[in-house]
Fold:
Amino acid sequence: MARFGTILASSLVALLSAAHARAQMPPHIQAAQEFLMGWGKGNWEAVKAQAGDKVTVKVGGTEYTLDVQGKKADVQLIFPFRGLSAVRVEGKVKGVTVEEIAVKAGGSERKGKGAVTLDEKDGKFTVTAVAVE
Structure:
């Protein structure tokens, strides 16, 4: 029984640490991460909370659309993605780079560096586009 208590306590500490780390995440990184997680899981409510009605996804030279309102995607995010960092123009956050991202579109997969374009209004960041090299 003591072992169970130790495991439970350790699990609780890990869970609280993860929640604290997420609370410390800058809002632009959090918006991009929540969007990507929602998109990858097909959770349209999570995607809608971080994006407008439609999001353009550029894969190489081809454009696809995430129809958030209609809950349809011409392109699918493949997990995992990693390495999120801010893109600033004249000191303002304009997006987030993704060191490694993979998508499936047009019957093929593409993996490489990516970028999530954001609009900011009243301190809230909204995803408008995604690009995969």
In short: Residues 2-23 form the longest helix (22 residues). Residues 26-132 form a domain with the Nuclear Transport Factor 2; Chain: A, fold (CATH 3.10.450.50). Strands lie at 51-59, 62-67, 72-73, 75-89, 92-105, 108-121, 124-132. The chain has one domain: 26-132.
